[in-house]
Structure formats: structure tokens, C-alpha cells
Design brief:
Helix content: 55-70%
Order of helices and strands: HHHHHHH
Structural class: mainly alpha
Radius of gyration: 15 Å
Largest sheet: none
Distance between the termini: 33 Å
Strand content: under 5%
Oligomer: single chain
Length: 125
Amino acid sequence: MSQLKIKITRQVGLKENGTVATGSFFNDALEEWKELNLSAPFVKFGLQVRNHCQTLPQLLYHKEQVVDLLVKNLDDGNVLALEPILDLTTQLAKDLDDELFPYLHKLLTSILPLVEFRDVKVIEV
């Protein structure tokens, strides 16, 4: 037991491709998804959320607006944007940690109906 080391801080530094990480899992994932998903609904979401999440402090300040945008897109249920929106919801949970709790009900209310979704690969995120 004395040999066990647990590191609870988040490391922010160079990513695999050599660029400096922003300190926000959400923003890093958003940048990756913007290259992978060029569907109209997701591009629109990216444009709406981009000014709220460029850094972790900015994301924390605008968390309510970001959650509202995620919920709106989850409720729309557009299959083309669903996978990145679900992934970004996960990344937001990592960034907000305990601060996500007030928004959890709202997010789960939008996510749970997706359990009936037939394409498991999309909701597997």
C-alpha cells in the first residue's frame, strides 16, 4: 500500500501532436471534432460554443450556456451530430467535475431518451 501513488491533479502540457493543450478537455475535444465532423448541425454548434470554451476558466464562467447548447443539440437528436455532442458532454463532465452537479438533471433528461437509439456505435461514447 505504501508503494501506491495517486496523482489527483490534471496535467496540462504538450499533446501528442506537440501542440500546447488548453487545459480544457472540452475545448481539446471540440477542436478534434471540428476536423472530424463537418455536418451542418455540428458546425453550427461549434460556432455557437467556440467563444465560451477556449480556456478552462472561460468554460467554467460560461458553463450554463455550454450546458444549454449541449442540451439543445441532444434534444434535437440529429444523428450526424450526436456522437460528438455526447463525447463533448463527457469532456465537459471532466472539466467541471463537481460544478456539473446542478446541471446533471438537465443533461440526463436529454441523454436518457437516447438509450432507445438503435445505432449503438453512436451512443457508445
